[in-house]
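Our preliminary data section would be incomplete without showing what the modeling component actually yields. Below, a chain of 313 amino acids is followed by its predicted structure, encoded as tokens that our downstream tools consume directly.
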Amino acid sequence: MNNMKSNIEMRDAFFDELLKRAKIDRNIILVSNDFGAPSLDKFRNELPSQFFNAGISEQNIISVSSGLSLTGKKVFVYSIASFIVLRCLEQLKIDICSMNLNLTLVAVGPCYGYSEDGPTHHATEDISIIRTLVNSNIYSPSDCSFSKYLINETLESNSLNYIRIDRGKLPYLYEGDSDFSNGMTINEYKSEITLISTGIISYTSKLVLQELNEMGIKINFIDIYKIKPLNEKFLINHLKLCKFVFTLEEHTLNGGLGSIISELITDNWLPCKLKRIAIKEDMLYAYGNREVLHLERGLDKKSILNIIINTIK
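Predicted structure:
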């Protein structure tokens, strides 16, 4: 694992790559939800005719973007995850998904990305909400290396694309030229135990695996960065050989990654046992920095280690 921290935020890495594409393709449009960032300033200054600040009007932004998409524009909407998902479910369903239009939501701060701003800014249910919509794709990258892959995928899509972009400068898990086409990366150690995670907490997963490895416990690791549609065949081929499967996510226990893997195991009669590690329903709403929230919810490294060790014993 590369422990070096990126010198650029995931958001800025994404928009820098989008700017390169937008200079070539005039149909690429970026709509901002009254939201600032250095990379957005750069985009607006260099391509003012392809950038719109639509203000604090999330539902209107989706409806306007659907109109732009109908004219052949490739629209990227940038907003805080909690606002663009929870306030706009009807517009996403009717204006975008029912007509199978191309729209990419670049949602910053999923789950506890805005931890200290409290429940109004927490997007602890975003995966479970978006995955219910037909004609939708969900991407949950774990570091800055995914920018080119994400933009290639979304520009070629004819559906709603939801990208969970975390805040801050994150450690690298991958090289910039890595192949992300499978929608997930699997590190296998010929073990009957597998840990599956997604997004920012995949780095915590790597730390857990390192410590388990030092204890002589080998565990396979799967980082899923394309949650929907899930590459089921690729995943089933691995899980059918497992005895224990753990899912780890910074998301509510209901309907997130753990639920997706549970459904996959059940629907395909896989013989493995599953333990889901996520935020319990009665602990969703709270204030505090991310580290404290993780500690209180058992999403810190020590708690995860104890759960895995006690389960496999």
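The CA atoms of residues 278 and 299 lie 7 Å apart. The longest strand covers residues 244-252. Preliminary results of this kind motivate Aim 1 of the renewal.
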